[in-house]
Amino acid sequence: MAEAQLHDFPSLFSVKGKVAVVTGGSRGLGLSAASALLQAGASKVFISSRKSKACDEACAILNSLPNLSPGAAAISVPADSSTLEGIKFLVSEVKKHTDHVDILLANAGATWGEAFDRHPDAAFAKVMDLNVRGVFNLIREFTSMLEKQAKSGEDPSRVIITASVAGLGIGTLGKQGTYGYSASKAAVIHLGRNLAVELGPRGITVNSICPGFFPSKMSNGLLEMGGGVQAIANANPMRRLGKSEDIAGVIVYLASRAGAHVNGAAIAIDGGAMWARGQLDVKEAKL
Q1: Structural domains of the chain, count
Q2: Chain segment 252-279, per-residue pLDDT in tens
Q3: What mean pLDDT value characterizes the chain?
Q4: What range defines the domain where residue 105 resides?
Q5: Of 90-99, 108-117, 175-184, which one has max mean pLDDT?
Q6: Fewest CB within 10 A of the end CB: N or C in the chain?
Q7: By CB neighbour count within 10 A (0-12 exposed, 13-18 middle, 19+ buried), where does 104 fall?
Q8: Radius of gyration of the chain (CA)
Q9: Is residue 5 part of a domain?
Q10: Which position has the higher pLDDT, 6 or 80?
Q11: Domain of residue 243, CATH code
């Protein structure tokens, strides 16, 4: 039957020749995502974070991967995505290498943990500014480059926002409450839904990924306070925490032809942990 003849299935999960920009790409989930995109065939992946040395080191790791396409490269572009000036600088630097972008991963983010009664206004503002306002500015400033080669419907350009399951449910409460972080991730998920409808007709999909606990610089403190990696892993329905492949697979799916008709989604990547408990305390927290 015709329905069984999937068009060019071998290329379904390929991003061959695509150009990607990854903010917060020098470590953690951003670095895993960048690695996945390069190994899935991307021709250029721009790695951006505030620290120049970290970007350079990440690119050295990525460019030493053994299975990249001929000529594929990770390119270091240090920039501060928390400011409009930093984002404009990032765009201008990317334009020195390419006239278009196919995949934009808005991954840069910050958190702050403190008890409710003494939670600082400045910390709340800083987290909201980078995690929501910064994402909005990043997408707006890159839209013209995302539109350049977008083919609406068949091969749209992709925006992927790194949110969190803390934006889908409840995050960390108590003495290390991450109130601004949880609120910012809920906000950016809904921002993504709005932009999915706004930008879809312009050939750009917008989706959010919502990781649970992945060992990282941002989450390690909470993991330790929650009883350690093994204790939190044992509480997960899958009996483990997230790992690089879990992020890589979802990123490649959303960025490839396989995800061309997914728009406005928020995909939880937490092994089902969010549904296994009700209100979260620090021992059950999600980043």
Answers
A1: 1
A2: 999 999 999 999 999 999 999 888 765 4
A3: 90
A4: 11-284
A5: 90-99
A6: N
A7: buried
A8: 18
A9: no
A10: 80
A11: 3.40.50.720
